[in-house]
Amino acid sequence: MRKTEDWEMDAKERFVSLYKQYIKREGSERLLDYLLKSDFFTAPASTRFHGAYAGGLVEHSLNVFDCLSDYLQRERVKEVYQLSCDMETVAIVALLHDVCKIDCYKESMRNQKINGTWQQVPYYEFDDKMPYGHGEKSVYIINGFLRLTREEAFAIRYHMGFSGSEETRNVGAAFEMYPLAFALSTADMEATYFLEGKK
C-alpha cells in the first residue's frame, strides 16, 4: 500500500491515461470531467477494509483493470469459455465499477487506544447522499453520461457477486447470461482480497 502524494498523482495519471486510451464512446469526455471534479481520485475504497485511505478508490479501480485484463488473456477463458471483450468494455467495467462510491466518504476523528493512551485518530465515515444501491448506482451514474451495453451494465451491476446482498438466483442468472459479470466479480475479489486486503 503506497500512500505518498507522488503515488496518488501517478495513480490519477495512469487512470486518466487508460481512460482516454480506451474509452471513446459518446459522452466519455463529460464523464471524465465529472470524475475529475469529484473526490474519485482522493476517496478511499472502503471505511476499514481494502483501500481505506486517501486514493484507495482509484488504486482499487486500477487493480481491477489489471486483474480483469489478465483474466481475459487466459487461454481457458478465451478457448473454453469463449469470452472476449474489446478494451473499451474492459476499461469501462473495470475502471468505473465503483463510481457509486463518489462523495460517500467523509473524514472524521475518533478515539483509539494506542499504547495504553486514548488518542484522536482520523477515520472515514460512510455517508451516502444517494442510497441507490451499489452496482446499480454505478450503472445509473455512468448511464447519465454514456450508454452502456447490456453486458457492461450487468457486469457492473453484479460485480459484488455472491458476496453482496443480492438475491443469489439473480447473481447466478447474471453470471450465466453475461460471463463478463463473473469475470469482473472475480477481478474485483482478486484485487480486494489478494492485492489490497484488510490493512
Question: Characteristics of this structure?
Answer:
199 residues; two-stranded antiparallel ribbon; 9 helices; 2 strands
Describe the protein's architecture and organization:
With 199 residues, this protein is mainly alpha-helical. Helices cover 53% and strands 10% of the residues. The chain contains nine helices and two strands; from the N terminus they run αααααββαααα. The chain has helices spanning 5-22, 28-37, 56-73, 75-79, 87-96, 135-143, 150-157, 168-177, 179-196, and strands spanning 105-114, 117-126. Strands 1-2 form a two-stranded antiparallel ribbon. A hairpin with a 2-residue loop joins strand 1 and strand 2. Helix 3 (56-73) crosses helix 9 (179-196). The radius of gyration is 17 Å and the shape is globular.
Largest sheet: 2 strands, antiparallel
Strand content: 5-15%
Task: Give me the number of helical elements.
Answer: 9
Query: Biggest sheet: strands side by side, in what order?
Result: 1-2
In one word, what is the shape? Answer: globular
Number of strands: 2
Mean pLDDT: 90
Question: Rg from C-alpha positions?
Answer: 17 Å
Helicity, as a percent range? 40-55%
